[in-house]
Amino acid sequence: MENKYEIGALILRVVLGITFFVHGLVKFQGGIENTAGWFTSIGLPGFLATVVAVIELAGGIALVLGLFSRFVSALFLLLMAGAIIKVKMAGGFLGNGQGAGYELDLALLAMAAAITITGSKLLALDKVIFKSKENQNTVSAK
Question: Residues 6 or more apart from 137 whose CB is under 8 A from it?
Answer without folding.
Answer: none
